[in-house]
Amino acid sequence: MSALKEQLKQATKEAMRARDKERVATLRMVNAEVKRVEVDDRRELSDDDIFAILNKMLKQRQDALGQYEEAGRDDLAAIEAYEISVIQSFLPEQMDEEELVDFVAGIIAEAGASGMQDMGKVMGLLKAQGEGRVDMGRASALVKAQLSS
Predict the structure, then answer these.
(1) Most exposed of 16, 86, 97, 135 (fewest Cβ within 10 Å)?
(2) What is the mean pLDDT of residues 98-113?
(3) 3-88: which CATH number, 1.10.1510.10, 2.120.10.30, 3.90.180.10, 3.40.109.10?
(4) 17-57 pLDDT tens trace
(5) Which fold has domain 97-148?
(6) Exposure b/e, 99-124, CB count within 10 A at least 16 = b
(7) What does the pLDDT read at residue 21?
(8) What is the chain's mean pLDDT, rounded?
């Protein structure tokens, strides 16, 4: 069993003992999604696979949060914000803006990218070397800006 999967199960047990209903519900949702992917793919998931699932869930919740805030549904936005905080607690710390700019510049130099035609190669390296610490949306915008200039 992967270390992250074990960590999720332990966190669920601790939340149950603390009678934290919201945290238990969020962690059960995460565990259910991990289990669903395992059953669908018929394999044991690695930490990287689970990080990918968590990132996908995080992005879904961030999109929903924006839509709820736009619609004035503060009650639903609060639920999404809480779920985001729980999911983020299992992900590595994201790079800050300055660190991300330096990292992107290093990847572009490593790839020998000279124009927009090299964007796919750069994004592949970013994803591989970022190890979950890179916000791919922000990174994509930085890559576009640096390659187009």
Answers:
(1) 97
(2) 88
(3) 1.10.1510.10
(4) 999 999 999 999 999 999 999 999 999 999 889 988 998 99
(5) Arc Repressor Mutant, subunit A (1.10.10)
(6) ebbebbeebbeebebeeeeebeebbe
(7) 97
(8) 91
